[in-house]
Amino acid sequence: MIKYTGLLLLLLSYMLSSQTIDIKTKSDNIQIKIYNTSNYLITSKLAQLDYLKIKDCRYSHPAQIGNIIVDEFQFLIALPENSDYAIEKKFFAKKLLNNTIQQTTQFREYLKLQNVGKQRGISVAIIKINPFTHESSDKNWFVYDSIEINIKFKQTIHLSDLQNTNREYPFFSEFINKEHIPGLLSKSYDNKKNNFEKTLNELWYNPNRKYLKLLTKSDGIAKVSARNLINIDPYFERKELKYLHLLHKGIEVPLMILSDDDGFLNSEDEIFFLSHRAEGDTTWYDNYTDYSAFYLYYDDKSQGLRFNNFPEAPSTQILDKVRLKKHFEYDTVYFHGDFSLQWDIENIHREGWFWFDINSENKKQFSFDFINYLTDTIDIDVNMLSLNWNKSSISKHNFSVLLNKDTISSSYLDTGKIVKFNYKIPIKNAITGKNDLTIINKGNFSSNEKQIPDIFAIDYIELSSKIKPMAIYGKSAFYSELLQENKKLILPNFKTKDVFILDKTLNLFSNLSGIEGTNIIAGTKNQGSPKSSFIINDSIFSNEQYSLDIIILKSPDFKIEYKSFLELNNQVLDFLNTANTGSIIAVTYNSNKQIPQNIISKFQSLGSSSISQVSPDDAWVFIRQVGNEGAIFENHSKNSSANLSEFIKHNNGKSFVVEKNLLANNYYDIIASDLSALEEVIIQPVNTTFLRNEDNQADAIYITHSNFKTGADSLADYQKSKGYKIKIIDIEDIYKEFNYGNKSAHAIKNFLRYAYKNWEKPAPQFLLLIGDANWDCRNHLANSINVDYVPTYGWPVSDYWYTCLDNGIDYLHDMFVGRIPVTQNSQVIYYLNKLKEYDNAPKMPWMKKFLSLTGGGINGEKEIFKENMDGILYSHWIDTPFSGDTMVGAKKK
Q1: For a Cys-Cys bond, which of 1, 306, 382, 801 suits 793, CB 3.0-4.6 Å?
Q2: Alpha-carbon distance 102 to 367, whole Å?
Q3: What are the tens digits of pLDDT across the range 776-818?
Q4: Do 347 and 458 fall into the same domain?
Q5: Spatial distance between the Cα atoms of 488 and 519, rounded to a whole number of angstroms
Q6: pTM to 2 decimal places
């Protein structure tokens, strides 16, 4: 009996509260009448502020005014497109409130009509009505017990009932003028289809062509085997080579085909092109993928773009200086941005990936190698960002920058800022070889106590200088100034004999054959902190002491032997004497000890001309191939570093050097690679699709990954049996047609917006994403394991964002979205079986029971979450004919 009495009281409460608000919709106006407001007022607390609450009203919502919170009435209405309207308002029956709320500022009743965007093509507004007024002079509070509003339109709207069986009904169930909805929808359908924003080159993809998708991960030279292409799609076998085309972001790019013997694509052919990393729109790396997409296709109506051979340019003048600009960045840590905006799914200030963080307890060291500097200074840019959330704790981060343990700069980064610092480092602090850049967080102190948190991060480091051309790990990239005359480019230190070189701006390509030998880099300094380094081919040896260091590569196998001598005695001579004819000797000296005469004599016998002038605390390097009078090199410095970088040609060498003449009157932007450093290419087949066909129509769109295709088909068949039109879309096809093949949540939204605006009406109403997601799309975090099959958006993540389609700036959903976060196809089938069971289950009371949980990080947040949940419960489940049975679990205050 108690149970039914409670239900009766609930229904009675609904009826009473409904009688206080009367809404009438006519063809040219909306009338709202509110009565008996004072009968439903209570005073409470919300987020530690006084709260005037209108209880048991589905249209009341809290709004902060000054230092209190009051409920205002809010009504959702649909408006005619571009229609003028007039609002008549009457506030009367003003009543004095008995309360003790303290408010220092005056405010009065108000009515506002706020346009909030579009939903399903209909303009949407919120009417906000505040019934309270407060006079600061006498501190009295009043409420208007009755309010009448009349919104008059200058054009009439056809009236029709919006039945709850209408598939558009769920989008407008909360609107107070539902009778206007069918007429407004009809006008929206009759309007000419919206032109989709042409932010992409839509004409690049032609469904009548066959494509292969090629994926690369880094900037460099890529090679793809024709055998692998043909294995993926035999269509391309024996196609005439001159009609092959390659696209990147919808634009044709050149390629080079080697091993061609008959003009047709055969298994032995090899295709070369300039590969790319996945770039973000404003960031070095893309947030969603590590791969950049290319598309290969065949079209016998036009010849494809090709690299040209480097032109003949006889010269004996060596190009000894080129420009290097090298970017160092790795996405390893994610910062979620300002703490106060963690609820915002959009990218906020300072949010994003960075390389590493530095707190006041540690320092970070970064090494760069293999560079032979030919300028007085080296430019290094360091992009830093503050990771502190609370600016009141500290105002700045104090830090120092050191190169090879010598302090280059001491500075600070303002809390909450992102700043790029530039350092011009004197060459005396650097060496040719391994250099260590160290950044130290010096901390903040108050009364000798370290202030925490104090954390900043390094986003990237860029290094630029003039250098001697050379490969690093089989790869080289640099650019030149305008050549006034023909120059000979000598490029050493490749791992294989075959080397490929191309110019990125002039579209030139050449396949070179290298000469074997050994590449030797030696550098040392004693100014400030001592440091010595050898790089033999790609092997690094480093020492941070005052010493004499020797490397010997003994002929004929040229195996490396390395020794460091703190004491300059006969052991030095013994080691030098092991070098037989043909062996290579490399020496660095930065010792604070005098070189004995017998060691000086030994180096003189090896060909040194400056060893006798070397004094303690000088820097000296020496390279010599025993028995080869043309291979003697040395450098002596008293106040700076001493450096050498040489390639010695000989048989049985483990490194290779290539040469190429360059024509005058050109700027060159060159990249070179040996076989070991060519970029790998992933080849994928491409479906033929027609996503931009405006004759498409669907009630629901299923976006899935190919791994779950059969499960998605079964689920779609079940829904089709209920009368729904379903379109199943492979996620890769969306990337192809709406982002040039590159993975992106924005591609998904662009597709949905296109389908919503341009497919046959009625527009799709439901979106189902089939496949798990991971906001760390590339799995860069150490604990990131989930595969990102179908991306979600932002952090905190949101699939709802995909459905805000009308104008791109509001958050009104134009589709209903759900996700089945499966990782296996069998899980889709399990879900389908559960769905069938639920659909066929008889209607039972338990189906109207709801358990709601709310949390929050701080007390005010907890209260707001709980209050919002109460509003949702009342307006959607309790104060409706549904009459749900609810239970709420809230986090303690």
Answers
A1: 801
A2: 63
A3: 999 999 889 999 999 999 988 999 999 999 866 788 999 999 9
A4: yes
A5: 19
A6: 0.89
Query: Which of helix, strand or coil describes residue 497?
Result: coil
Segment 844-860 shows an average pLDDT of: 79
The pLDDT tens digits for 859-881 are: 667 777 777 777 666 666 666 66
Query: What letter represents residue 545's amino acid?
Result: Q
Residues 343 and 400 in one domain: yes
**Beta strands at 363-371 and 406-414: parallel, antiparallel or unpaired:** unpaired
- 859 in Cβ contact with 48 (< 8 Å): yes
C-alpha–C-alpha distance, residues 813 and 817, integer Å: 9
| Other CB atoms within 10 Å distance of the CB of residue 76 | 18
Residue 47: partners with Cβ closer than 8 Å, 6 or more residues away: 69, 859, 860, 861, 863, 864
State the burial class of residue 584 (Cβ atoms within 10 Å of its Cβ: 0-12, 13-18, 19+): buried
- Indicate whether 679 pLDDT > 90: yes
Q: Are 727 and 828 within one domain?
A: yes
- How far apart (Å, rounded) are the C-alpha atoms in residues 296 and 738? 17
AA identity, residue 448: N
Here the CATH number for the domain that contains residue 711 is 3.40.50.10390
Confidence of residue 200 (pLDDT cuts 50, 70, 90): very low
DSSP state of 763: P
Model confidence over 488-527: pLDDT tens digits? 999 999 999 999 999 999 999 999 999 999 999 999 998 8
Q: Is residue 784 part of a domain?
A: yes
DSSP SS3 for 860: helix
For residue 598, give the H/E element and its range. helix 597-605
- Rg of the chain over all Cα atoms, to the nearest angstrom: 37
Amino acid at 526: N
Tokens read off for 252 = 């044709």
Is the residue at 819 inside a domain? Answer: yes
Domain of 340: which CATH number?
2.60.120.260
Residue 6 lies in a domain: no
Q: What are the two backbone dihedrals, phi and then psi, of residue 778, each rounded to the nearest 5 degrees?
A: -100, 5
Burial zone of 192 (CB within 10 Å; 0-12 exposed, 13-18 middle, 19+ buried): exposed
CA distance 76 to 124: 7
Note whether 45 and 182 are same-domain residues.
yes
Domain extent for 782: 692-840
Instruction: Please check whether residue 201 lies inside any domain of the structure.
Output: no
Q: What band does 37 get if pLDDT is binned at 50, 70 and 90?
A: confident
CB-CB contact of 804 with 814 (8 Å): yes
pLDDT surpasses 60 at 194: no
Structure tokens at 71: 């409920």
**pLDDT value of residue 12:** 33
Q: Integer distance in angstroms from the first to the last C-alpha of the chain?
A: 35
48 Rama class: left (phi>0) / alpha (psi -120 to 50) / beta: left
Same domain, 169 and 277: no
Alpha-carbon span 610 to 632, nearest angstrom:
12
- Collapsing DSSP to helix, strand or coil, 393 comes out as coil
* Residue linked to tokens 């030994």: 602
Closest alpha carbon to 427 in 476, 380, 480, 460? 380
Same domain? For 533 and 627 the reply is yes
796 and 878 fall within a common domain = no
The CATH number of residue 59's host domain is 2.60.40.3800
The pLDDT value recorded for residue 852 is: 83
Nearest to 166 by CA among 143, 147, 183, 148: 183
Contact 352, 283 (CB under 8 A): yes
Number of domains in the chain: 6
Give dist(CA 465, CA 473) in Å, integer. 19
pLDDT (average), residues 685-693: 97
CA-CA distances (angstroms) from residue 743 to 102, 202, 250? 55, 17, 15
Other CB atoms within a 10 A radius of the CB of residue 532 amount to: 31
Q: How does pLDDT run across 96-115, given as a tens digit for each residue?
A: 887 666 666 677 889 999 99
Vertex 453 angle, CA 449 and 458, to 5°: 120
Q: Which residue has the tokens 């409920």?
A: 71
